[in-house]
Structures are given as C-alpha cells and as structure tokens.
Amino acid sequence: PPKKKDIRDYNDADMARLLEQWEKDDDIEEGDLPEHKRPPAPIDFSKIDPGKPESILKLTKKGKTLMMFVTVSGNPTEKETEEITSLWQGSLFNANYDVQRFIVGSNRAIFMLRDGGYAWEIKDFLINQERCADVTLEGQVYPGKGADGSEKVKNKTKPEKSKKKKDAEKKSNGVKEDNRATNQREEL
C-alpha cells in the first residue's frame, strides 16, 4: 500500500501518478484518443476486390494518418517547389481533402493526410499534374505526367543499391572506406 503523504510534500513523480489515477477513471471519447489508442475501424470484406490489392490498402488505412512523398519535375528551387505544391494543396483543400504539406528538399515534399483512405484518390490527382515527377505511397513509386521517359515505369519500387555494386566500387578505387580497425597497415 502506498504511503500517505501530505500534498505539500509531493514531487513531480507523485503528481504524475496522481494525474494518471484521475485520467484512468475519466471517460474519454474515442475521437479524443490518440490514433494509436483508438480501436481500428471494422473492415467490410465484401468491398474488397481480390484483383486489386490497392482496395485492401484503402480499407486498412481508413481513418489513419498517412504520408506520401511527391517529387516536382524539372530542376526547381525550393521556392518553386513551395509554390507548386502549395497550388496542389489548395486544389485538394477545395476538393475537401485535409492535407498538410512539408517541403523536405529542393524538389520533394511530404503530403500528410489525416485519413489514409483517400490517399489513392489524392495520388491519382497528383500524378496527373504537369510538374509532378512521381508520387511515393506505401513503398510504391507512381510516375507522374512530369516524369521523363526513363522514369515512366508503372508502379516500380524504389531501387536499392546492391551490396555487390558497392563492393566492386571499393575494390576498383583501392581505398578502404569501412570503419573497421584492422591489424594490417595500408601503404599509401
């Protein structure tokens, strides 16, 4: 059993425990709970089309926060990227999509959606924009209208540098670039 302390002798940890006890008994509405504590929305399996894996993703992401990366074509400055993506965000806002935008590079932006169920509709809008090079959504890269011919591969995944290629480059350079200590001394 916890000791009884005078309220004037409480420290920060005691106050935090007291607050936890009060909140445990409170009735908090589901909408006020943080996203990770909300129960998942029930999935209606009759709406799933087995031929389209995107339909499963749409239903599982409904009501959850989701982020998509958008690349602006050409070689824009960060200011140009800001202006172009701002126009796209405004168009989406006018169509009643709640989208937040964050610039992460001179030609990249993150679009954060409060409801991931609309992500594929927003992706379809973005890839039809003239200056959109590509949209990355759930690990899939969708080329946009602004992509050059070499990038227009339907639904490719991001390429990863292979380890063999890196090893071959190291050997050809003759310079050791890893961070390991060795017993041998290399002559320069």
What can you see in these coordinates?
- This protein is an alpha+beta fold and 188 residues long.
- It has a domain at 69-146: ACT domain (Alpha-Beta Plaits, 2-Layer Sandwich), CATH 3.30.70.260.
- Helices cover 32% and strands 16% of the residues.
- The model is unreliable at 151-157 (pLDDT under 50).
- The chain is built from 5 helices and 6 strands.
- The chain has a 6-stranded antiparallel sheet, covered by helices on one side.
- The longest helix is centred in the middle third of the chain and has 17 residues, at 78-94.
Strand percentage lies at 15-25%
In the sheet with the most strands, the strands line up as 2-3-1-4-5-6
Tell me the structural class: alpha+beta
CATH architecture of the domain at 69-146: 2-Layer Sandwich
According to CATH, the fold-level topology of the domain at 69-146 is Alpha-Beta Plaits
Number of separate helices: 5
